[in-house]
């Protein structure tokens, strides 16, 4: 989860959406019957890029999470990260992308155990994850937003409002928003934890909570067909008292700096030309979510 970027160093807990978000039922799809291309790299910077070129296919770890990376109703791989991967890897000489769906919390372990070659799930970059994988620079940034009842009757616009107005509050399993609310003074045991933004919308519509917190992208998308709820204006959460923006990026095994660096070169070209925004726009991203943040910034150094 939201997912969906922010700019202080978020040093503990999950970021971007859930650590468990995704469709677990998709976990077996693509995992079975895949020939393994990746083995331990034997050259400085890794040799995975060359081996992927030779094989003509790159395996993408996805978490079944709309709009970041998922299998659509027709059984096709899509989402902002897979569509971006198609463009960049084609430019790198790799024509085919193959999905390996798993739970969000299994993406980093799956990457490092070579179940797939790259994480393409819009994963937030934070110091905790940077200790386990290497990230490309973020392809998007994301602020937070609430799902509230129409008209926002309690006037909830940020986590401080949630605390001061003693609002009933929900967010998703493993979401970064748990930490943001706790930092604002909300008691963690009082937070209603639900599986995802759809469940959060249902909780708000049913009156079980006053607000559900998620990324600005996922909240505004999920309320589009609701007659009872709306999304608040995006806002920046605070971490250690400072505004914090999360950035989502592709993740690679720590040995594969060569592949990561080649990916970054193409990503920068797409940013400069404006093509990146054209790729992400169909999935609900706006120009406000385009970013020049770097992985180094978000990793804390």
UniProtKB/TrEMBL annotation:
Top-level lineage group: Bacteria
Lineage: Bacteria, Bacillati, Actinomycetota, Actinomycetes, Kitasatosporales
Solute-binding protein family 3/N-terminal domain residues: 57-287
Protein keywords: Signal
Protein name: Ectoine/hydroxyectoine ABC transporter substrate-binding protein EhuB
Keyword Nucleotide-binding: no
Stored InterPro entries: Ectoine_EhuB, Solute-binding_3/MltF_N, TAT_signal
Pfam families (UniProt xref): SBP_bac_3
Gene: ehuB
Annotated signal peptide: none
């Amino acid at each position: 989860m939201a997912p969906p970027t922010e700019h202080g160093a978020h040093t503990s807990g999950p970021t971007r959406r859930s650590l468990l978000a995704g469709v677990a039922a998709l976990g077996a799809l693509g995992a079975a019957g895949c020939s393994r291309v990746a083995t331990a790299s034997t050259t400085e910077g890794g040799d995975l890029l060359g081996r992927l070129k030779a094989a003509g296919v790159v395996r993408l770890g996805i978490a079944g999470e709309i709009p970041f990376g998922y299998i659509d109703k027709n059984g096709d791989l899509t989402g902002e990260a897979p569509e971006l991967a198609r463009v960049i890897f084609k430019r790198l000489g790799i024509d085919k992308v193959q999905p390996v769906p798993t739970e969000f919390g299994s993406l980093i372990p799956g990457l490092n155990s070579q179940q797939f070659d790259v994480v393409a799930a819009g994963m937030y970059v934070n110091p905790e994850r940077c200790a386990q994988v290497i990230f490309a620079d973020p392809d998007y940034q994301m602020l937070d937003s609430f799902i509230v009842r129409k008209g926002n009757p309690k006037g909830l616009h940020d986590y401080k409002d949630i605390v001061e107005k003693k609002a009933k509050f929900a967010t998703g399993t493993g979401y970064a928003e748990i930490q943001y609310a706790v930092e604002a003074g909300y008691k963690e045991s009082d937070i209603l934890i639900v599986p995802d933004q759809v469940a959060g919308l249902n909780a708000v519509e049913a009156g079980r909570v006053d607000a559900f917190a998620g990324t600005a992208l996922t909240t505004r998308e999920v309320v589009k067909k609701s007659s009872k709820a709306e999304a608040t204006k995006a806002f920046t959460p605070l971490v250690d008292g400072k505004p914090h923006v999360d950035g989502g990026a592709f993740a690679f095994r720590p040995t594969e700096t060569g592949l990561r660096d080649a990916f970054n070169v193409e990503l920068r070209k797409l940013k400069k030309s404006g093509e990146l925004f054209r790729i992400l726009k169909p999935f609900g991203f706006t120009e406000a979510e385009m970013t020049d943040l770097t992985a180094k910034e978000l990793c804390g150094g």
